[in-house]
Design brief:
The chain has 475 residues and is mainly α. It has a single domain (13-208, 250-474), classed as Up-down Bundle (Growth Hormone, Chain: A). The chain has helices at residues 17-39, 41-51, 56-84, 86-105, 110-138, 144-173, 186-192, 195-205, 212-217, 221-231, 236-249, 268-282, 285-298, 303-331, 333-357, 374-405, 412-440, 442-463; strands at residues 5-7, 14-16, 360-362, 368-370. The protein has a two-stranded antiparallel ribbon. A hairpin with a 6-residue loop joins strand 1 (5-7) and strand 2 (14-16).
């Protein structure tokens, strides 16, 4: 059986497609755990809130606490990867996922649950940086966008599997708060289920080679050539020379290297990376994946129906991510983000209008929640899924691809870590504030997300560069 090979029609370069997909897929498993770890709380949050007697702000903090670990993990991962290698950081992240799954499943209160979620967040943050960096460094430029999008595909598949397992476990027990195996509540098994993918990620990380750039930086060009031969058929020496040239001029970077020469502000490209990260979160996408079951229950759906709707939404997210993979190297990153921002602004605006116009009733905990009519409920579900469609085919994969390739080799690790840390801080702010904001007005909450979607469109049109088809060494 021969290795699948492809030739790019524009550059004429030949590469091993199957091997490139294999290496990128293993690295992207970190994205699967990223999605699983952050979304698994969705099915458990109502049961945990009730069992531990938590109010809206404490609930928001416990849900968002993993994101504090993500900030630290993202910031440290790039620098750590430059010291010990990309694959070793993957193994370290896998260990954090494993420990977090066990600790969260055995938690006895809000404090220790928060601690174990922070540990998992460290793994998520590390995976969010190391996967796009590794994929970008081993990929032929002609298919780098599609391979980089595998990270987002893995994230949304991880979200889907987490939500599906949540729904399955809750269904077996008769509810997330009900007892399942060995007398433990179903919500505990939702966390423990992460043990399986964590072990798979750690073991598979042993099977892939180190990044050629890291190897050249360590003066191991012989091994770097061997790695590149697994992916490229021609142009290997030219690639080595380009990597050597950029490594030679690169000292170990720090945040100081991200500042303008003689100035006190960050380089423009770093600001663009940070802004991309913040906008990706400020449109409220993770409210859908962290709180959607709680949200749909609050506006009148049963727990079973709410979990079913959440699973359907995650399937939609997977499908449109596949669409993005097919488009991103054809129409480019900027155009994809522009289409996405436009669609998100419209769909979020519809959600804001539906929630703002609906009459309110008193919820189970004394809060005011909108009461949707049958028609209003259908429109809200359609708008929420349309929002996921436009996000999933644009800003979901597009931002990760851009962060993996838009920075020069000299600053990539540090800049990507800083941008990812900003993303997790933005995610934390949105996730923690949602329960309290929703208790005041869902209409105003989604109105804010609509404003951010409009602002993201203006930002892309004015400042975001196109990176399609360019070698990393040319950035």
């Amino acid at each position: 059986m021969t290795e699948a090979r492809s030739v790019d029609q524009h550059s004429g370069r030949d590469y091993h497609l199957t091997k490139a997909i294999h290496l990128a897929s293993v690295a992207a498993l970190g994205g699967f755990l990223f999605g699983f770890d952050t979304a698994v709380i969705n099915g458990a949050v109502t049961a945990v809130q009730s069992q531990f007697g938590m109010g809206p702000w404490l609930t928001g903090f416990v849900v968002a606490s993993a994101l504090l670990g993500c900030v630290a993990g993202a910031y440290l991962a790039g620098r750590l990867a430059d010291r010990i290698g990309r694959t070793r950081v993957m193994m370290l992240a896998a260990a954090m996922f494993l420990v977090s799954a066990i600790g969260s499943g055995l938690a006895q209160g809000a404090v220790d649950l928060t601690f174990w979620r922070v540990v998992g967040g460290l793994g998520v943050g590390a995976a969010s940086v190391i996967a796009p960096a590794y994929i970008a460094e081993i990929s032929p430029a002609e298919i780098r966008g599609r391979l980089g999008s595998l990270q987002q595909l893995a994230i949304v598949v991880g979200i889907f599997v987490a939500l599906l397992s949540d729904a399955w476990l809750a269904g077996l027990a008769g509810g997330a708060a009900e007892q399942l195996w060995f007398g433990a509540s179903a919500w505990r098994w939702m966390f423990i289920a992460e043990i399986v993918p964590a072990l798979a990620y750690g073991l598979l990380a042993f099977t892939i080679p180190e990044s050629p750039r890291f190897l050249v930086a360590r003066n191991d060009e012989r091994t770097a050539r061997q790695v590149l031969r697994q992916v490229l058929v021609s142009g290997i020496e030219e690639r080595i020379k380009e990597i050597r040239r950029t490594v030679a001029r690169d000292a170990r970077t720090s945040v100081r290297d991200l500042v303008k020469p003689g100035g006190r502000t960050l380089l423009p490209i770093v600001w663009i990376g940070i802004a991309l990260s913040v906008f990706q979160q400020f449109v409220g996408i993770n409210v859908i994946f962290y709180y959607s079951s709680t949200l749909w229950q609050a506006v009148g759906f049963t727990e079973e129906d709410a979990l079913t709707q959440t699973v359907i939404t995650s399937v939609t997210n997977i499908v449109v991510t596949v669409v993005a993979i097919a488009l991103i190297d054809k129409i480019g990153r900027r155009r994809l983000l522009t289409i996405g921002s436009t669609g998100m602004a419209i769909s979020l605006g519809v959600l804001a209008w539906i929630f703002a116009m609906a009459p309110t009733v008193v919820g189970d905990r004394g809060e005011r929640v909108p009461e949707l009519t049958d028609t209003g409920g259908v429109i809200a579900l359609i708008a929420a899924n349309a929002f996921v469609v436009f996000f999933g085919m644009s800003w979901g994969p597009g931002v990760w691809v851009l962060l993996g390739e838009m920075f020069s080799n000299r600053i990539r690790g540090t800049a990507l870590g800083l941008a990812a840390a900003a993303q997790w801080l933005a995610n934390f702010a949105i996730s923690m504030s949602f329960p309290a904001m929703a208790a005041v007005s869902l209409g105003l909450t989604y109105g804010f997300y609509t404003f951010c979607a409009v602002a993201s469109l203006i930002f892309v049109l004015k400042w975001v560069p196109e990176t399609k088809g360019r070698e990393l060494e040319d950035m």
